[in-house]
Design a protein that fits this description.
Elements lengths: L2 H11 L4 H23 L6 H4 L2 H18 L12 H29 L7 H32 L4 E6 L3 H14 L3 E8 L8 E2 L2 E5 L3 H6 L3 E6 L6 H13 L3 E4 L17 E2 L2 H5 L8 H8 L3 E5 L4 H10 L6 E6 L2 H11 L8 E5 L5 H11 L3 E4 L6 H6 L1 H21 L4 E5 L10 H17 L5 E6 L2 E2 L6 H10 L4 E3 L5 E2 L1 E2 L1 H14 L4 E5 L5 E2 H11 L10 E3 L17 E5 L5 E6 L7 H10 L6 H11 L12
Parallel strand pairs: 1-2, 1-5, 2-4, 5-6, 8-9, 8-11, 9-10, 11-12, 12-13, 13-18, 14-17, 15-20
Antiparallel strand pairs: 3-4, 6-7, 16-19, 18-22, 21-22
Helix pairs in contact: 2-4, 2-6, 4-5, 5-6, 11-19, 12-19, 14-16, 16-17, 18-20, 21-22
Length: about 625
């Protein structure tokens, strides 16, 4: 037999035998009837009623015994007694009492007035038996856990949350993993229930979590619900990590299998969960006016940001949604997802390069999009440092091409997804995005299309970003490589970023640079350490952290705005507008034209020199100019 089978047999041996539970219930059934008689007649039962005990006793044994068998009151494990077990007891007792009432009525009709039981005794017996059966189970359950908690080598689990989901987690652990884990505490924000017990388990104030953990042997903490704020969640996780605990979470109820929670659905908390920002409600009516019933074009639709924009757009019922990307496989995957949510007639999938003027011109001429979300771009720093011509082709020339097509075809709005790397750029990727910003601001002059720019930092989990790379390095046993111990970055979830992009585009009047509030900058070293600890490992011991030096074009810290920009708030507290105190040079269009003309030469040195001519002070590591 397998080890698991042995464990299950061992667990079965610790259960109260069903015949014993049935016997105890029957004894209580007899005792309850006797006590009911004693209470009814003040301990002195008249002879006319006591003479019928020879009939009453067998009836109680037969009727109560049958009721317990029919409703299987003995089937549930005493230590797991819950509302369903209490309901079975109620049904069994009520059914038995109903039979007694029926026998009384039958006896009265047949004998011409004789009752087997006094009616008041039946009512008293019903209440007494219901109470005693329930109390017996609660007492045995409480006693079991009190004794078990005094000597138990199973791993202790703390559950955050005392609502229904918290109880479901407890029952799931007991049902599927009772031989490995035991719940030793509930934690919650509600002060009024601290110090009480739920199913024999103490409830503690989560604000005193560290104090509790100092005197406990807790192995894991499970979030059965989300804390009231990301800050509180981080505080709880940090406390658990300091005591080398595992941190797990339960999926939303809508994701449970057949409305039931399975143990394998309880997953480890990952770093993405801890970096989530507090969501801010967006202006749905404003966004609806931008999208509903209109033709929407999304470039880079298969990328991390573009795909999330697509997911948000379909909720506002566009007349036609056009997806453009040159990554065939990811584009196919998002197409398959969209087929489940949008009519095929309202979806167009375009596999193509946004820098292809013939393809893009045909697309705009044919579909006449009302709104363009331009998220297609090359963004990886070292790759663009070594391939500046491709950054020029895709990040600058393609953006200019699409902007001109949008303006020429009467497009209402054009929203360009930029990056904080465009501010005081130290790399080709950031410089190319900054030049694209300047290009759009220039095209805005004399165009009826409302061009807007959204500028923000890193999207959590995006392709090639630091978090997926760290995760893979940890899975491979390390080392985790960091360029510099002081490097810090801003992070934002793709969902929140896409929501803010849509609202920024909807509120645009043309020519704005929108800046998103991404919260505090996060030190990458601290991020790596926390990811290692969340994996149940120790930084520096189980997983080495290695510093490799700053990559070409990488900065220690990113910035959101230039010195010559001021921030102005909008109606959304997460969105501000960068107002330039001085405009870009008047000849920026001519300089960009010169830069674009270098594309056919594929001369990196000339391209870098032309970029520097547009962004004074910019230097690439590949440039030979000083």
């Amino acid at each position: 037999m397998t080890e698991e089978h042995h464990l299950n047999k061992f667990e079965e041996g610790r259960h109260t035998p069903r015949w014993m539970v049935f016997f105890l219930d029957l004894v209580l059934g007899i005792a309850s009837m006797g006590i009911a008689y004693m209470l009814r007649f003040n301990l002195s039962i008249p002879a006319e009623w006591s003479s019928r005990f020879s009939l009453v006793f067998p009836l109680v044994v037969i009727v109560r015994g049958a009721g317990f068998i029919v409703f299987r009151t003995f089937a549930g494990l005493i230590r797991y007694t819950g509302s369903k077990d209490t309901a079975r007891i109620l049904y069994a007792v009520a059914a038995g009492t109903g039979v007694f009432f029926a026998l009384n009525l039958l006896s009265f009709a047949v004998t011409g007035g004789m009752l087997i039981f006094p009616m008041s005794v039946l009512l008293t017996d019903f209440l007494l038996l219901l109470f005693s059966l329930t109390v017996l189970r609660m007492f045995m359950k409480s006693t079991y856990y009190d004794l078990l908690n005094k000597a138990d080598d199973r791993k202790g689990v703390v559950i955050y949350g005392t609502d229904q989901a918290g109880l479901v987690v407890k029952h799931t652990l007991e049902r599927e993993m009772g031989h490995d884990f035991r719940v030793i505490s509930f934690m919650d924000e509600k002060e009024h229930i601290a110090g009480k017990k739920i199913e024999g388990v103490n409830v503690h104030d989560v604000r005193l979590l560290r104090n509790f953990l100092q005197g406990s042997s807790a192995h894991s903490l499970i979030f059965s619900k989300q804390p009231p704020s990301p800050k509180r969640k981080i505080e709880i996780v940090d406390a658990c990590l300091d005591f080398n605990m595992k941190i797990l979470s339960v999926p939303y109820i809508s994701n449970w299998i057949s409305s039931k929670l399975a143990f394998n659905q309880i997953k480890s908390v990952n770093i993405d969960d801890l970096l989530e920002r507090t969501p801010v409600p967006v202006n749905d009516e404003l966004i609806k006016k931008l999208i509903s019933g209109r033709v929407i074009l999304v470039t880079g639709a298969a990328g991390s940001t573009g795909s999330e924009i697509v997911r948000q757009v379909i909720t506002y019922n566009p007349a036609l949604l056009i997806l453009v990307d040159q990554a065939e496989s990811p584009l196919y995957e998002i197409e398959m997802m969209l087929r489940q949510h949008i009519d095929e007639k309202r979806l167009r999938i375009v596999a193509g390069n946004v820098a292809d003027s013939v393809r893009m011109t045909d697309l705009f001429n044919h579909y006449k999009p009302d709104t363009v979300f331009h998220a297609a771009a090359y963004k990886h720093l070292p790759m663009m440092e070594n391939n500046p011509a491709e950054a020029l082709r895709t990040n600058i020339c393609a953006t200019r091409l699409l902007a001109r097509l949008a303006s020429d075809n009467g497009c209402s709005r054009f929203i360009f997804v930029s990056t904080d790397k465009a501010v005081n750029p130290a790399n080709v990727a950031g410089a190319s995005k900054r030049i694209a910003e300047l290009c759009l601001l220039d095209i805005q002059n004399g165009s009826d299309t409302r061009f807007s720019i959204v500028r923000f930092g890193n999207v959590l989990g995006s392709n090639g970003s630091v978090i997926p790379r760290f995760r893979k390095q940890i899975e491979n046993g390390g080392p985790v490589t960091i360029t510099h111990p002081e490097v810090s970055r801003y992070f934002m979830t793709g969902t929140i970023a896409a929501q803010l992009i849509l609202e920024a585009g909807a509120m645009s009047k043309g020519g704005e640079i929108f800046i998103f509030d991404m919260g505090p900058s996060i030190k990458i070293y601290d991020l790596a350490r926390k990811m290692i600890r969340l994996a149940g490992l120790r930084p520096g011991r189980d997983i080495e952290i290695k510093f490799t030096g700053l990559r070409a074009g990488e900065k220690i810290n990113e910035e959101a705005i230039f010195e010559h920009e001021d921030l102005t708030p909008t109606d959304n507290p997460k969105i501000s507008v960068a107002i330039e105190k001085r405009r870009a040079a008047k000849d920026v269009a001519a300089k960009i034209e010169t830069l674009a003309g270098l594309l056919t030469e594929n001369d990196n040195e000339k391209i870098l020199a032309a970029i520097t001519n547009i962004i004074p002070g910019f230097r690439s590591v590949l440039s030979k100019t000083e």
